[in-house]
Amino acid sequence: MSQSFDIAVIGAGMAGASLAAALAARGGAKVCLVEGEDAPGYHATGRSAAFWVESYGGPGVQPLTAASGPALHDLGVLTPRHGLTIGRAEQRNEVAAFAQTFRAMNVEVEELGRDEIARRIPGLRPQWTYGALEPTTCDIDVARLHQHYLATARQAGAQLRCRAGLRAARRAQGRWRLDLADGSSLEVGILVNAAGAWADSVAQMAGARTLGITPLRRTIAQLVLDAPVPEDLPLVLDIAGGFYFKPENGRLWLSPHDETPSAPCDAAPEELDIALAIDRFENVVDWRIARVEHRWAGLRSFAPDRLPVYGFDAEVEGFFWCAGQGGFGIQTAPAGADIAARLLLGEAAGAVDPAPYSPLRFR
Description:
Layout: E1 3-10, H1 14-26, E2 31-34, E3 51-52, H2 62-74, E4 78-80, E5 83-88, H3 92-103, E6 110-112, H4 114-120, E7 128-134, E8 138-140, H5 142-155, E9 159-161, E10 166-172, E11 175-180, E12 185-193, H6 199-205, E13 214-225, E14 235-238, E15 244-248, E16 251-255, E17 260-261, H7 271-282, E18 289-302, E19 309-312, E20 319-323, H8 333-345
Parallel strand pairs: 1-2, 1-12, 2-9, 5-14, 12-20
Antiparallel strand pairs: 3-8, 4-8, 5-7, 6-7, 10-11, 11-12, 13-16, 13-17, 13-18, 14-15, 15-16, 19-20
Helix pairs in contact: 1-5, 1-8, 2-8
């Protein structure tokens, strides 16, 4: 016999969990959070580089990041760590334009010269001469944030189903019937697509046109260095998008900032990407790597314009998009969940205009 809910959220990663919490906390709606894995957060959420940087994701994402900052601070999941975007001599104009763009959006950005950069990054190689410092950058305790959302949803009455991936979705007489991998079925009024890398697959099951949300593989290596990693080292990012690295509990997390198209899957790192990351890192600093201690990869899912998608589908009644959060879904979770919850429940817009993130922009 089918269980009945007002809203089913497909995917219990950060996007789905934060939305379920926002919906359940408002009361009135009976919510089911549907997860295909043994536990929530197995894919992109559990493999995040875990930082909050106002410039990350670009100007279109910045309003979501800025609006999320106070909530993340209040939850105690942020730890201060400066962010420093660096460039070589020939990239001076790019660094200056980057700083100017985000200062115009009221982001605190300070342009630095060679001496100031080298003071913050010991062993910096001489070709790196310009930088843009974001002192508001923080690390995020991703696991704590995710568990907070899951607990909030559960305490407000939302139900979590694990090992219950969506297998079929049919709409009739104003309701969805959802068949799940555990053999059960649900009857729901609204189907929310928060399935991350599987977002277009869920849309196809529901009879909706796909939006071209593309999973891209991102690799991270955890390095042990010959010398201790300075704990006050900033998050260091390449102005050209070729790498980033940051300290983490005495180790160094390093990414080649790769974006390799992938089918939705349990992503695994490629040796070539690890080698590429190390080569780029050794062209930034003269530090010696003792060993690669751990490596992993995750899928970041982007819409064609690299902005998230929040809103009801243009054609399929009762089908709602909460997808395309790319690599910024953790740092924008509070604002994204608020936008989606307001749209779902017919509330007035909040701190961030939802229009730029509507699925209607693709029609």
